[in-house]
Amino acid sequence: MRNRKIFVWMAAGFSLFLAACQSPKTASSSIKDVDDAILRNVESRPGEWLSHGRDYSEQRFSPLRKITAETVKELGLAWSFDTGTDRGLEATPIIVDGVMYTTGSWSKVFALDAVTGRLKWSWDPKVPRSYGAKACCDVVNRGVAIYKGKVYVGVLDGRLAALDAETGKVVWEQLTVDQSLPYTITGAPRVVNGKVIIGNGGGEYGVRGYVSAYDAETGKMAWRFYTVPGDPSKPFESPAMEKAAKTWEGEWWKLGGGGTAWDSMAYDPEMDLLYVGTGNGSPWNPHLRSPGGGDNLYLSSILALRPETGELVWHFQTTPGDAWDFTATQHMILAELQINGQARKVLMQAPKNGYFYVIDRKTGELISAEPYVTVTWAKGVDKKTGRPIENPGVRYENSPIAQKPGPLGGHNWQPMSFNPQTGLVYIPAQETDFYYSQDRNFKHRPGTWNTGVDFGIINQPPTALPTGHLLAWDPVAQKERWRVQYPVIWNGGTLSTAGNLVFQGTADGRLVAYSADKGEKLWEVVLGTGVIASPVTYEINGVQYVSVMAGWGGSFPLTGGSIGLPAPSGRLLSFALNASGGLAASKPSAPATLTPIAFTAAPGQVAKGSALFGQHCAVCHGIAALGGGGVLPDLRASDKAVFDSYRQLILDGAMVNVGMPAFKQWLTPEDVDLIRLYVLSRRAELTTRK
Ligand code: CA
Mind listing the pLDDT tens digit for each residue in 429-452? Predict the structure, then answer.
């Protein structure tokens, strides 16, 4: 306790010292000056937000304190920028030298005046819209990285681009994937020691994960680290792959393997370790992926790599032999914690599996792991081995099983933050569940959703929607300190500041400020669209701003239709004290008056259509056709003309330009007729319900 008080006092003093040093504003200079020294010491430029998680430790904590628990109620809209999309917005903006760099859907990049919101330039990589069909979770992008006058972005179709920060012109572009395979990039790059690090996604589609490093200046590839082994009849790419191959069985490489590194990274300059989180197995079903078992390294793991060479130094596997889509791609935070009277340099993660991990980041040794949400699949984590103690039957080998968390996780990609003054981690947590069942008719379908789990069986309207909450977690005691309950899951990432504040956007369309120590709601603004991105804060000419990208998406089957809000154009909103800009409230769209469409179905046809819908359609259009959360149209509300052209629309790829593939490779015309009957039956329920 005493240590914490002293630390708070010291941190406060340090911030005042910084404030004194940078007055008048001198710290900010050209983006060309942003080099390794500055990225290692962002505290020299406290008014800016220079890398994805603000600094290499990815704490998302800002020392700025003009906006405080006392003044936050005076926040008003300073400016807004319309990104021209109604798909999900997930980017963390970067702010340097008075300019904000951010991304929208389809990997578009925007450079804006951070004081006025005026567009300086934008870059559209012109992603072929067919790539929408390879994106499991919307055509999102989580933002850019900057370094020595360039802006780096990972493009949905697998390109990595370096843009001139002044003009937005392409300096170099590299293809980081084999485009004949269903790889996508949605994560933000990081720049470490002059190398741009980028991973990719596609675990549900059957790819082999890896992370690559490119020379920031030239774009030349420096190294690539595969996260799971390939065909063992070919040479292993690294000693780590040789070791990993011993933990797989059967012919895993034919189905991809997974382990994609699609989002989280952090870097410790002192230890020179780059931390990368890896994803689930491909397919999810371990009996198909690696019959006979095995841990399947390095699925669902935290990897510590040498950024110079890509060499693996240590790994910590959160979920050995993953069977549940329990990724460890969730945001990682580096911090120094006092544990049993000792200062420990730790890495913290709240991966999907429901346990909050505190790990020694030098050695990978587990310090502690406790459940931060309801967990039914395991009894706990063995402190010696670091392995979860699984409950019987959870691998759904012989029979299906309902358990918590589900594939959306106790926490997903939405970044958590850490406030060194309160010692608390602020997690966008959620209570999710799932009915895991083997797909007994599994046939590998190249290029599309391949989980080996039966989604047809769960294609039922849920009796209750899963809920989310903002969780303030004490990582030393491994205990909840406070929470704020939300009506639905899939709320935004968090930001914490030295003003004793936590900011979070919500799925139900608000941006809220809470006191960091107690969780009291101090301010909120209604935005009219859900927020999933994390807010950022910056200061220019003595004015502190809080900004967030508002645009709900990242559509998932279980979140579909849960919020009942319209999907207005996605916006970037910047707030400041005493600013008085108006926020055009988007009015909720009136419930459509649907005229019933007559149909006749023979016994069993609707049920068959339901199973097909669950397997092929629900991933985008929502379980039980509940819609894609306003991101994609509610299929139940389609016109008769749409229902009349189902075969063409679904089989022939008429919608390929909005990201829907031609399903003739996987479905017969008769299958489509069954799906049509099912959706019509769901529509009938809607039209008869009051
Ligand atoms: Ca996944």
Answer: 999 999 999 999 898 888 888 999
